[in-house]
Amino acid sequence: MTAYHAPLAALFGRVPxxxxxxxxxxxxxxxxAGIFANPLLLDAxxxxxxxxxxxxxxQGLVDLPRFEVPKP
Amino acid sequence: xxxxxxRSIASDRAAVLSGETSVVAQTEERIDQIRARATLSPFTxxxxxxxxxxxxxxxxxxxxxxPAGPLFGVPLAHKDMFDREGQSxxxxxxxxxxxARDTTAAVLERLDAAGQxxxxxxxxxxxxxxxxxxxxxxxxPANPLVPGAVTGGSSSGSGAxxxxxxxAAALGSDTGGSIRLPAACCGVVxxxxxxxxVPLIGAMPLSPSQDCVGPxxxxxxxARLVLACISGADGRDSSCIGPALSGDxxxxxxxxxxxxxxxxMSGATAEMATLLEDTAQALLRDGNAVSxxxxxxxxxxxxxxxxVAMSDAVAVHADRLKVKSETYGPQLRxxxxxxxxxxxxxxxRAQQIRQIALTRLLDTxxxxxxxxxxxxxxxxxxxxPATNVGGGSGLNDVIAGMTRLTRPASFLGLPALSLPAVWxxxxxxxxxxxxxxxxxxxxxxxxxxxxxxxAARPQxxxxxxxx
Lengths: 72, 467
Hints:
The structure holds two protein chains of two kinds. Chain A has three helices and two strands. Chain A is mainly α. Chain A has a two-stranded antiparallel ribbon with strand order 1-2. The radius of gyration of chain A is 18 Å and the shape is elongated. Chain B is α/β, with parallel strands linked by helices. Chain B has an eleven-stranded mixed beta sheet, with helices on both faces. Chain B has a two-stranded antiparallel ribbon with strand order 3-4. In chain B, strand 9, helix 8 and strand 10 form a beta-alpha-beta unit. At the A-B interface, helix 1, helix 2 and helix 3 of A face helix 9, helix 10 and helix 11 of B.
């Protein structure tokens, strides 16, 4: 059993298959490099990217921008 | 590799307005052609009675002197994900998902108002999730241009139907490449609009912040015309904020064009690299300002785009999945299972990375150029068996590989068009033209210029008739 069995069971309403479980495990393995240590994010934090609204607040808190398609 | 003659909106419309044929006769002829297909048809349902009723109505209106809209009498067909009152919609899914509808999607209403004859529904990947076109329930239509290659997805039937000359144009949808990929695989034009240009009322949702509806067509002019017909704000859809596509046609020679010469293009075939170089040289000869840019940061968008798409998709499917998981194909179940490993703050962080990337794009790329020219795929369409991985271990590699070049425009809400350019023995090579938001006119202008530069596609024998 891994941490993903319960959320998968809740999602599918049954015990997950091996393929479904493997897909969740593979997704989890991509989160660090793909999201939390994403190079775009790290670059923006390193230089506090003012145009995109990235700000590092006191105590290391981070204020990040919302996505919006520019208006016509 | 050869191809059936393509249809055009202009010729279909002219045939009925000139009196050469009637709308009913043209519609009957097209239905007969579709029914003569042997197997692996791009159609999931031909709405024959409704189409002929509509055709008769248009003939009566024409006889009474009513003005003819831009699509008058033109037979079209559309991806099986748009509501039409009185008809069922299937979503490329298990038959239990088929639903009769009591309203009509905004885009179909607009095409009706323009004069189309809607022939029926076209095949798609299950619930619009699948860049190859494989479908566990209904199979994949045959690629009319490249036997043995995928049609591309998820608008697989739309690409195949246009490529086979069954219709001049067809609507598809695009969340990570699903208009552009079948266009590239089938050797036709696919036009994804700016996020918010076309109303989504009555269109099946996948990832609402990335979903777009747009046309596949035999030529840029037809794709532009259909997009103009369906675009523009609709008071019922608050996400549709853009104006209708105007008739503006900027001089393509005045446009600044950018090509990537850095790591983002690693993996392109030698033929694709040559095509890009030839395109750059042709534009320089035309007088365009051409730049090279480093777009390597686009690769950092693949995982954030997947996180947003799969989380959104599970939110759409959660209720059905809990009670009908056995009706989903193995690939789709595996993809939706990913969401169980995506915490909420990863989703939010992905959205924030999206804005960081958009700012970088606007400040460092679209300050120097008006348009980007990229491939749609790194080479010709991939082979069917190699990409038919179901829900197995190669799934993410296949999806990421197919969508690597198309996902950035989807994730950032940009307009993008796929244009077939060079015909090889392995299949067509297609260019992708991307602009900043709301600049579809620039995309179409450059695409038409490039369309005139590259050779017409080769002709072939008709597909085998049914026995």
